[in-house]
Amino acid sequence: MVEVLGHICTHPCEDACRRNHLSESICVRELKKFVAQRAFYTSSVRKDKGKRVAIIGSGPAGLTAAYFLRVLGYRVTLFEQMAFLGGMLKIGIPFYRLPRRVVDKEIEEILKLGIKVELKNAWRIWKTF
Question: Are 127 and 87 contained in the same domain?
Fold first, then answer.
C-alpha cells in the first residue's frame, strides 16, 4: 500500500531529517508516491500451505495482513461488515487527502492474489471457521 502511504503519511522523518541543517530534507513521502504511481509490481504467491485464515475488517491492517498471508501461501478470506472494502481508508480519510481511486487500485492489486471476500457479512465467520 505504498501509494496510500505516499498520500497520507505525515512525514515525521522529513521533519527530523539531518539534511535540514545543510539545505532541506529528503521528501520520502513524495518519493514513495512517485514510485508507486509509475512502477509496476506483482507479487508471487508461494505454494499453498493448505491452511485457511479469516481476517475481519478490510481497513489498512486487514488488507496488509491479507496480502502478506496470501503471499506466504495461506488461503485468505476477508470478512467486511460494510458493503465495500477499505474501512477507515475510505470512511475516515477525506477524499481530497486520499483519492478513492488510489485506495481502489491498491485493493484491486491485493485481490488479484486470490483473496476471497465476504462483504456485509462479518458475522458469518463463526459458521465458516
Answer: yes
